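Hey L., structure's done. Input below.
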Amino acid sequence: MVLCAVTGELGAGKTLFATYLVWNNFYYKKRKIATNYTIYGIPFYRIRTLEQFFKFIPEKETEDEILKGEEKAFFGDDFWRFISSRMIGMGSKQKNEMINRILMASRKAFVTVYYTTQLFSMIDKNIREITDLLFKPTLGGNMQYCKAYVYGVIEGKLLQPMQPIYFWTEPIFAIYNTFERAGDIDIENPDSELVEEFHPIEENPAWKRYCMINLGIDINSEEYLKKCKEVEEGLGLSEVRKKYEKKA
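Output:
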């Protein structure tokens, strides 16, 4: 469907913006979400192996999947770097076959793939040339808001910038762990089982620290739980939480 890049130096807000897109894809577009890092407040599938990636985005869709038309979005933080690091020792033919298989999966109908990278030029040429959109986030106002420049991409070349995207950062800080290193993608592990995960916002250690240091909130207090609930409601995730609490 669409292949999108999020670029920027360390600390530019790449993972923050990718997580904003996780929420946007889940809340507005009702897409099924998969990532290689932990999300809080939103149900998602954690991708740890290449076989899980192919299970989430199969090479062939069944008739039922085509008729159902369920949309999916995969978010790979430093995805291609992890894939490339696991290809050391492979011949160029093997590497190309692996990259092409991933690209074929990512171009399936009803699928959008997002990946982050420091520099667009670091990405394999085959990937760059079929990337459709590129986002460049920047943080402003003492990290209170994010502005992302948006570019169309044709054959690896950027077009004129489109309308930028703005959003407040605090609610997004609540739904991912800023201290977590995105997980490696294991290309040899045969495990393909997909398990949906749900982690409440109040369990996010980075959000706990943010509330404690930046907001002066005691994380063992009712005030902290009230703040988490406020963020949930602001992001439209209250009903999601109730659904998963019932399951538990």
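The radius of gyration is 18 Å. The chain has one domain: 2-200.

-- N.
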